[in-house]
Amino acid sequence: MSTTEKLSILKRMQTTLRTAITKLSTKLNDSNSTQADIEFNAERLQIKLNELTLADDEIYDFLNDQEYSEDIIGCEKYSENAHLLLFNSKKKANTSAAILPCSRIGSSPTSDSIHYASPPNVTVKLPTVNINTFYGEIEEFHSFWEPFENCIVKNEGLSQIDKHVFVRGYLDAEAKRLVDGISITADTYTMTKEILKSKYGNKDKIIQAHLDHLENLTPIKDLSPSALNELYMDCNRRLQALDALGERKNTIIRENFGSENTS
Asked: Which superkingdom, per the lineage (predicted)?
């Protein structure tokens, strides 16, 4: 078989696999799917991703530098979207779907453990932890980043690309749009992390955001116990956050609301 014929076969295989991945992604996005459906389709999607990675690798052997640069864009597109979808499906259905990067794969993942893009034969089992999705509210960054940093960033069992997949999976709204144009690779993980920390992690800006909210509270018209309790909880949460950032509550109240309120 000539090189041209073999490349043509591999290209057809690549197209078929990408079509299958698109169909499985649509099924995983179906809000009416049962947990069993999600688990089954996530496993099938992972298998197709593995097959696509192997096909891509074979194709690259036949391409020149220019063709390789063009083809890798398609690989990254399907890889990134599918990895994030698998991650979100796992969060939603508590499955054990594997999350793997667009790279050579030596063996297929098992269904009872999580296999990442870490060195071969390394299985990472993450602890159960509640990490809230971050939408871009600067006041919420500290409460999002602290558990994420302890459980994901400092986890030596995760590779850079694993951590990148996780951080992107926990972003939504403004925060997601901020880094949407960055490819999910090991090389861009640090850049993504620093962009988020630079935008939302400035301590002085976080403190000021809490103070601005407290200073501009809208008087409530509904004096029911539930409404008053909601206001109290909101103010107390922000005061606790400021206290954790090194701002003493009594000083904040005295400086912003008058000394008569500090009794």
From this structure: Eukaryota
Overall pTM > 0.70: no
C-alpha 4: how far from its chain's center? 40
Give the phi and the psi of residue 87 in degrees, each rounded to 5: -60, -50
Residues 6+ positions from 116 with CB-CB distance below 8 Å: 98, 99, 100, 122, 124, 157, 158, 159, 162
What residues form DSSP beta bridges with 171?
Answer: 134
Separation between Cα atoms, residue 103 and residue 113, nearest integer Å: 20
C-beta neighbour count of 63 within 10 angstroms: 14
Could you give the angle at the alpha carbon of 22 between the alpha carbons of 20 and 25, nearest 5°? 110
Residue count of the chain: 263
Q: What is the pLDDT along the chain (263 residues), one digit of tens a residue?
A: 677 777 788 778 878 888 888 888 888 878 787 877 887 888 888 888 778 777 777 877 777 777 766 666 667 766 777 778 777 777 665 534 344 443 333 333 333 333 444 444 455 555 556 788 999 999 889 889 988 998 889 988 888 888 898 898 889 999 999 998 888 888 899 999 999 999 999 888 888 888 888 888 888 888 888 888 888 888 888 888 888 778 776 566 656 655 444 44
Distance CA 214, CA 256 (A): 9
The percent of the chain in helix, strand and coil, each rounded to the nearest 5, is 65, 0, 35
Element (H, E) at 117: none
